[in-house]
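1st attempt posting a full record on here, be nice pls
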Amino acid sequence: MAAARRRVSVGLGLAGAACAVLGVCLLLVGPLIIREQVVKNVRIDPNSISFSMWKDIPIPFYLSVHFFEVVNPKEVLQGAKPVLNQRGPYVYRELRYKTNITFHDNDTVSFLEYRKLFFQPDMSNGNEEEYIVVPNILMMGAAVMMENLPNFVKLLLSGALAGLKQEAFMNRTVGEIMWGYEDPLIDTINMLVPGLIPFKGKFGLFIELNNSNSGLFTVNTGVKNISRVHMVDSWNGLKKVNYWRSSECNMINGTAGELWPPFMSPTSLEFYSPDACRSMTLVYEQSGKFKDVPIYRFVAPKTLFANGTDYPPNEGFCPCMQSGIQNVSTCRLNAPMFISHPHFYNADPALVNAVEGLHPSKDQHALFLDVHPMTGIPMNCSIKLQLNLYIKQVSGIIQTGKIKPVVLPLLWFAESGSIEGSVLKQFYTNLVLIPSLLDYLQYIFLGLSVLLIISAAVTMVMSQDHKITESLRLEGTSGGHLVHLPCSSRVT
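the predicted structure (as tokens):
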């Protein structure tokens, strides 16, 4: 019996030791295995599992556009405050794909990313044939651009505008404003002031967005250094842009805005936006989960569009007006265009109060990026920007009436997308479920090893106790035979 217990004890001890070894191995090697798998799959390598997803993004993206209709155009011409009515959203499905993919010897790859947009009537509040009253963007923009030209040039333009029956506000369809319309004013301006608007043909706010690319990006592949993967090496062959007044503001920082290096820290992330003509920095707000996948949420700091007075590093983006808007005229053909958050969220209250109909809200108008920190892959995002036009009365151009200077919102848009369906399932299984199982297994093995070793020790002690007890019993039995005499031998 004691021998059997000793064998059981030895077996339990060996099993406990084996579990301890497995637990320690998983504890030490498990994270290395996971890290190696992440590194292998997030780098830009034709042999990696994720390469096809990087090349042809399977995530559904949607562009939602909201227009600001001017309700009182005649009164605005007389100096009244503009009253705005938000229309939309007009929703478009985005298909993104990369072409001209070229790998270089210095651990970089170049590509062009194209976007195709498809109108989604069932997701929209309205259709592209609806008419909306908005500022005559070409005319009002050209008027402000010509403000400092000689009066006779402005009078010539004013006469030409009258002949073309151009007015300060126009009533056009959503489709025309978005994708372009023929306007004889383009040829007239080019004739009177050559080079003022260096383009011909149609004019539309999104005419260059559909079936077009955002420039030639060259980014790091991460094959040699995973911490540099997706970081921009150059854009259109440039290491810096030349739109702004300081070297810092002209820097091309971060990634192309789709993916980031893995193993992120909860601090900030950067990306270069060709639409905004600048690099942007978002800051960590909080940790959370998106459909059970852990994420870091990054948001825009209040200083993103602050003017140089409120935030000196932004001085290079000036000439500035109020905080909360950024002058993008230098990269938008010198037109008096400004970008901001929708409804002037996080902007100087004077901008909101200059018009009626704006209701800034963090929930509706703040941009965010939810990124899986282990891989640097966005799980859910919504990038929101507003396009604004600076309009005013310009002496010599009678069509501008008595319009008071105002930064007038034209529209705001949100580009949104999230991982879902089979892509989300594969992501969750490979990068959340399996690592979690490995975590649980290492603690299960370690816990089991402790129980088994304790059980082995208890069994060994019990075996020893039984051996001692048996020995004492045997000794006691042997002593009784020496002192007890048979009855027949007793002396009476």
